[in-house]
Fold this sequence. Notes:
Layout lengths: L6 H21 L6 H11 L3 H9 L11 H5 L8 H15 L2 H5 L12 H13 L6 H4 L7 H15 L4 H13 L7 H19 L15 E4 L2 H5 L3 H12 L4 E2 L10 H5 L2 H17 L4 E4 L3 H15 L7 E3 H11 L12 E5 L12 H10 L2 E3 L24 H7 L1 H10 L3 E4 L2 H13 L5 E4 H8 L3
Helix pairs in contact: 1-10, 2-9, 5-9, 7-9, 11-13, 13-22, 15-16, 17-18, 18-22
One iron/sulfur cluster binds next to helix 5.
Amino acid sequence: MTPLATTSQKKAREEKLGSVVEGRLKTYDPGKDNTKTFVALLRKRMTRQIAASLVACVHCGRCAESCHYYLARSDDPTMIPVWKADQVRRVFKRHVDWTGRVIPGWVDAWTPVDDGDLNRLKDVVFGTCSACRRCTLNCPMGVDTALLIRFARGLLTELGIVPEGVFNVSRDQWETGNQMAVTEEDYGETLQWMKEELQAEMEDPTVDIPVDKPDCDFLYVINPREIKFDPRSIANAAKIFHVAGESWTLPKNGWDMTNFGLFSGDDSLGGWVAKNVYEAASRLRAKRMVISECGHGYRSTRWEGFNWAGVDQRLPIESVVVTLDRYLKEGRIKVDKAKNPEPVTFHDSCNIARSGGITEEPRRVLSRVCADFREMVPNRTENYCCTGGGGLLSMPEYRPLRLEAAKIKAEQLRATGAKLVCTMCHNCVDGLSDVIKHYKLDMKVVQVLDLVSRGIPR
Ligand code: SF4
Ligand code: SF4
């Protein structure tokens, strides 16, 4: 396997390999008192933001109806967001908050006593929450339950008490610089293949998929799933950029903007991956960064990565859908609705809409390129998760519950009568495809780039 990292990235990785990756591989130690380490980490990593969400809850229960898990299993109190957060809150009460030290029984303070307790906590925070933040937006006290879930995931990740899939993907991202362990050869060959295909399709030998071109208007960073399973999405983007006369490039290193640190709660992985992307933009002197269609990649790179990495990141970053909206507004690309005649609905990705603030741009784009665009209900920041968020697609052990919890999503999709559901997130493509298959819906998943590319007349 050829590593994709630059020398400085390799050095950083080697340092991490010693202290972090190998640590992950062997930290889980049945002979060690992991509960003590868990409590020590909880105390050490406590921030004002986390403490505020831990103490602000008044146990009103209003978050219950926000959660797709509870909506599917309303007879099961363990599916209520506040119950899930309470599994962390009780330890906080016991070891940090004064109430738990003075009146532990009254406030239900608790401490894990063995690895069995930590494993049960793992099943709660990884297996019963997709970190969609729908309950967060609907809490009158502003309690961010998903933040508490991620916090607990990070503590368990540090101990190696994680689902195997989370462990494997994190290791791949540490070791190769991308979460699907795509090699440098595969990356280069796939881009070359797409370039040749596009040149033939557009009958234009000047169409390019540039790599490592300095001083471009923007650096385009992608999801490894595009290289591995959906290279056509890169070709679609390249076609549109070509028609718009754009100056752009992909980087040779630091091209993976997805970030498993968001899902595992590992800020050190999150910071390292985000920094690779920021460094690529700076090395190539790009004026902006454009993120392809990925929800958690957008959130990690645009909103969280610089905090995890502790860097002063000032380069403008936007989603490619914002770029497409601008092209249409400025008349840089022309589209024909007749090319997309099927009824289309739009699924707001949690990390794009609720946690990323982008709701109107995709709608403006779809209204221009689709003959029959229809909303699903609820939508925008109130939309339901595709059910594959929070890294759940990498945890097959929780799949039966995830698909059971997808009942509300399936009903929501079916009610639109649409034949296509469009989303601007590769993770949601897989999550929704699973729901469609499981609930036997007559529908296919597409992305915004697909529809815009298809809408461009020859
Ligand atoms: S998290 Fe918010 S909505 Fe849920 S019980 Fe606590 S205060 Fe109420
Ligand atoms: S973040 Fe989403 S999945 Fe998790 S408890 Fe809240 S509503 Fe449920």
